[in-house]
């Protein structure tokens, strides 16, 4: 009774919000921000944006303070013909984030995948490909200047054993395609944070070491690199431990960059058993706890928020159920609550 009276008095005085409003300000992102991070966010894609229930969940700032376009900013979408740029899909997601007050991770400028055939089959020599690379980056980064918190400048440049991945860029230009790309991005938008982004670099090993060498390489060229994105596409029960993730994050930070968890999902065989879901909740919590514990881990992004639109079943047959919301957009309470408590207390005031 006393508590109700106190709430009424404070509300009447404009001091606090009602319990309902307070609940609406708590969520995955609100907790991340309360823990000192910039955001907790989600990837999204244009095809999903006609699903109004999905968009309502995605637009809830309390859960998602940041969006990453899953496909719209990739080369084949942006420059399908040489020197002809197409920004409509990208703009749709950028505008949605702005409307919702959400930050943006812009993904991705240079990747071996989702390239148009004019580029992969063009037979361009070194000098011409460098011109094409710079032109693409300059156009796209200029178009989105001031809109992106981060740009994933180069994505997935290494094979699993840490050797350079064969790609049109590496095969034609060599490793210097990386500093060339970062320099072009920095020139087009000096304020955006420039990231290298990859998977299976979330704990110590050959691929993480190669990525650390890439950071050094870019810096040796005198070029700006601000961060490393740890994609974190994990498998239930095989997720690196919290301490392994933390020490790996620290190894990057010791080189003078920040880190972000950029594409987190934790897949399992489907249908998921209850023991798998229990383990999944613990696995989500250990990645969140690692980011929370490391000051220069700036935020966590999940690779879409619902199994309805996850990329996993189409690539890993018989697997999925990797995200905190199910295929019917229903929140999985055990995973959601594990993420909430790993971030720590709800925001106050
Ligand atoms: O847009 C076409 C559509 O016109 C066509 O009808 C349909 C038929 O298959 O395909 C559509 O394109 C698909 C595209 O997603 C958009 O939905 C491609 O086939 C499909 O391959 C593509 O998959 C994307 C994948 O990257 C490509 O490698 C996933 O959505 C996207 O989530 C995934 O994201 C990557 C990150 O960029 C980098 N890290 C790994 C991550 C997961 O693979």
Automatic annotation (TrEMBL):
<keyword id="KW-0624">Polysaccharide degradation</keyword>
<keyword id="KW-0119">Carbohydrate metabolism</keyword>
<keyword id="KW-0326">Glycosidase</keyword>
<feature type="domain" description="GH10">
    <location>
        <begin position="24"/>
        <end position="342"/>
    </location>
</feature>
<feature type="signal peptide">
    <location>
        <begin position="1"/>
        <end position="17"/>
    </location>
</feature>
<dbReference type="Pfam" id="PF00331">
    <property type="entry name" value="Glyco_hydro_10"/>
</dbReference>
<dbReference type="InterPro" id="IPR001000">
    <property type="entry name" value="GH10_dom"/>
</dbReference>
<keyword id="KW-0858">Xylan degradation</keyword>
<dbReference type="GO" id="GO:0045493">
    <property type="term" value="P:xylan catabolic process"/>
</dbReference>
<comment type="pathway">
    <text>Glycan degradation; xylan degradation.</text>
</comment>
<dbReference type="InterPro" id="IPR031158">
    <property type="entry name" value="GH10_AS"/>
</dbReference>
<dbReference type="InterPro" id="IPR017853">
    <property type="entry name" value="GH"/>
</dbReference>
<dbReference type="InterPro" id="IPR044846">
    <property type="entry name" value="GH10"/>
</dbReference>
<dbReference type="GO" id="GO:0005576">
    <property type="term" value="C:extracellular region"/>
</dbReference>
<keyword id="KW-0378">Hydrolase</keyword>
<dbReference type="GO" id="GO:0031176">
    <property type="term" value="F:endo-1,4-beta-xylanase activity"/>
</dbReference>
<comment type="similarity">
    <text>Belongs to the glycosyl hydrolase 10 (cellulase F) family.</text>
</comment>
<feature type="active site" description="Nucleophile">
    <location>
        <position position="263"/>
    </location>
</feature>
<keyword id="KW-0964">Secreted</keyword>
<keyword id="KW-0732">Signal</keyword>
<protein>
    <recommendedName>
        <fullName>Beta-xylanase</fullName>
        <ecNumber>3.2.1.8</ecNumber>
    </recommendedName>
</protein>
């Amino acid at each position: 009774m006393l508590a109700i009276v106190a709430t009424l008095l404070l509300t009447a005085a404009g001091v606090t919000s009602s319990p309902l409003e307070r609940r609406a300000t708590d969520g995955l992102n609100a907790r991340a921000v309360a823990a000192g991070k910039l955001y907790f966010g989600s990837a999204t894609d244009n095809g999903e944006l006609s699903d109004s229930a999905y968009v309502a969940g995605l637009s809830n700032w309390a859960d998602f303070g940041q969006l990453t376009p899953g496909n719209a900013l990739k080369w084949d979408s942006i420059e399908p013909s040489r020197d002809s740029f197409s920004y409509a899909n990208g703009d749709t997601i950028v505008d949605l984030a702005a409307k919702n007050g959400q930050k943006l991770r812009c993904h991705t400028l240079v990747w071996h995948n989702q390239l148009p055939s004019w580029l992969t089959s063009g037979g361009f020599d070194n000098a011409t490909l460098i011109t094409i690379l710079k032109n693409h980056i300059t156009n796209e980064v200029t178009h989105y200047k001031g809109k992106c918190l981060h740009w994933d400048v180069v994505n997935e440049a290494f094979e699993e054993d840490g050797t350079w991945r064969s790609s049109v860029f590496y095969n034609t230009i060599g490793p210097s395609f990386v500093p060339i790309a970062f320099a072009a991005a920095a020139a087009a938008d000096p304020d955006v944070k420039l990231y290298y982004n990859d998977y299976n670099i979330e704990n110590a090993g050959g691929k993480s070491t190669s990525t650390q060498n890439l950071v050094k390489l870019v810096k040796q060229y005198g070029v700006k690199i601000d961060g490393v994105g740890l994609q974190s596409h994990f498998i239930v029960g095989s997720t690196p431990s919290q301490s392994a993730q933390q020490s790996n994050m620290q190894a990057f930070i010791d080189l003078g960059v920040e880190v972000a968890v950029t594409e987190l999902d934790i897949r399992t065989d489907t249908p998921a058993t209850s023991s798998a879901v229990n383990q999944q909740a613990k696995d989500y919590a250990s990645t969140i706890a690692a980011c929370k514990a490391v000051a220069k881990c700036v935020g966590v992004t999940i690779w879409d928020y619902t199994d309805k639109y996850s990329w996993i079943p189409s690539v890993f047959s018989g697997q999925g159920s990797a995200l905190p919301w199910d295929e019917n957009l229903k929140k999985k309470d055990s995973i959601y609550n594990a993420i909430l408590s790993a971030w720590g207390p709800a925001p106050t005031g």
